[in-house]
């Protein structure tokens, strides 16, 4: 995510964007919230006190939501390229935007996939109790039940746990057709490995938080046969996505996980709003941002009245 934002800043500075006859130079001020809600509010206050012009982030829903109040109170625009919990943009904060499909969209698609494509009738659901993991699991459960599936058990863990023997033993007793997990790769990987060890043959299904290369590393031989979803569209279907991927890999010597194009777009839409009104003052460029119709890397970006991207893929 940070890399994607830095590429956007690099491009803006190369273009030499000028406002009011003065050339702007964009700068990244980077902080780490450690995926912890308490740390996130500390970071947010630090950025607010530094009078930054906009915030790109945070990564997790559980950190994005508490931080959003601080940015709102300080009058700072926040554009998330990754937080998917619907609550973020439903608090009435006009400073909050998202360039990524939310969990209502992703959860409903996953529920339909589980029952339709995979034919699952008995489903076990586990989540990590974070805003992201629980939120996605809740939306998935609604969609799966609406499609006629039975949730045979709903279990909970944390985003720090790595031993799931007790939970999975209970899951095994329910003989599910599918195990849905709401959470990140750090737990999904070991969970998949332990699923195999316990002889549970049902596949796992999870969202973008665990749909990573790291999942494969952590799951080992247990990685085979599972399914996951990514909001958005594949890079090769994005306008300029292939060129962006090649440039990214050449610069950072690693593959894009998911969020880099969205972080790139998050920076660009803020700059475009500033450009349209000829000001870096939030009160002046905020209405332009809300009304934007911008040809981004990831999509044609327009926001609805909540600040969510319209027609999130």
Note down, in words, how this protein is organized.
The chain is of the alpha/beta class and 313 residues long. The chain is built from eleven helices and twelve strands. The chain has a five-stranded parallel sheet with strand order 7-6-8-9-10, with helices on both faces. The protein has a three-stranded parallel sheet with strand order 3-4-5, with helices on both faces. A two-stranded antiparallel sheet has the order 1-2. β8, α7 and β9 form a beta-alpha-beta unit. It is elongated and about 70 Å long.
Structure keywords:
313 residues, elongated, 45% helix
Describe this structure in a few short sentences.
By secondary structure, this protein is of the alpha/beta class. Helix content is 45%, strand content 14%. It is built from 11 helices and 12 strands.
Topology:
Blueprint: H1 2-15, E1 18-19, E2 22-23, H2 37-49, E3 54-56, H3 61-74, E4 77-80, E5 96-98, H4 103-117, E6 122-127, H5 131-146, E7 150-156, H6 165-173, E8 178-182, H7 185-197, E9 204-206, H8 213-219, E10 227-228, H9 241-252, H10 260-277, H11 282-290, E11 293-295, E12 300-302
Parallel strand pairs: 3-4, 4-5, 6-7, 6-8, 8-9, 9-10
Antiparallel strand pairs: 1-2, 11-12
Helix pairs in contact: 1-10, 2-3, 4-5, 7-8, 10-11
Spans of at least 5 consecutive residues whose pLDDT stays below 50 are none
Beta-strand portion reads 5-15%
Terminus-to-terminus distance: 19 Å
Radius of gyration: 20 Å
Please tally the β strands and state the result. Answer: 12
Helix-strand pattern: HEEHEHEEHEHEHEHEHEHHHEE
Largest β sheet strand count, sense and barrel closure: 5 strands, parallel
**Which descriptor suits the 3D outline?**
elongated
Give the proportion of residues in helices. 40-55%
Report the total helices: 11
Q: Overall pLDDT, averaged?
A: 96
Give me the secondary-structure category.
Answer: alpha/beta
The strand order across the widest sheet is 7-6-8-9-10
């Amino acid at each position: 995510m940070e890399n994607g934002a830095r590429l956007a800043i690099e491009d803006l500075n190369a273009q030499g964007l000028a406002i009011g006859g003065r050339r702007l130079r964009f700068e990244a001020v980077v902080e780490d919230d450690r995926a912890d809600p308490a740390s996130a509010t500390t970071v947010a206050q630090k950025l607010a006190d530094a009078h930054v012009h906009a915030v790109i982030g945070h990564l997790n829903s559980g950190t994005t939501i508490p931080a959003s109040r601080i940015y709102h109170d300080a009058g700072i625009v926040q554009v998330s390229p990754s937080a998917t919990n619907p609550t973020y943009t439903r608090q009435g904060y006009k400073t909050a935007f998202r360039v990524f499909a939310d969990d209502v969209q992703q959860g409903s698609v996953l529920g339909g996939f589980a029952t339709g494509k995979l034919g699952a009738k008995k489903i076990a659901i586990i989540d990590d109790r974070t805003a992201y993991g629980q939120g996605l699991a809740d939306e998935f459960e609604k969609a799966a039940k609406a499609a006629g599936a039975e949730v045979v058990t709903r279990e909970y863990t944390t985003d720090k746990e790595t031993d799931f023997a007790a939970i999975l033993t209970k899951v095994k007793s329910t003989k599910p057709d599918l195990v849905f997990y709401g959470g990140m790769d750090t737990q999904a990987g070991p969970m998949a490995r332990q699923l195999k060890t316990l002889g549970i043959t049902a596949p796992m299904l999870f969202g973008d938080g665990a749909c990573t290369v790291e999942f494969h590393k952590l799951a080992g031989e247990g990685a085979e046969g599972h399914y996951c979803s990514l909001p958005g569209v594949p890079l090769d279907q994005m306008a300029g996505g292939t060129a962006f991927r090649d440039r990214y890999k050449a610069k950072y010597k690693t593959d894009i996980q998911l969020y880099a194009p969205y972080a790139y777009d998050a920076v660009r839409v803020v700059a475009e709003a500033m450009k349209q009104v000829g000001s870096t003052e939030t009160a002046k460029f905020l209405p332009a941002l809300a009304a934007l119709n911008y040809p981004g890397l990831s999509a044609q970006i327009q926001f609805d009245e909540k600040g969510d991207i319209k027609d999130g893929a």
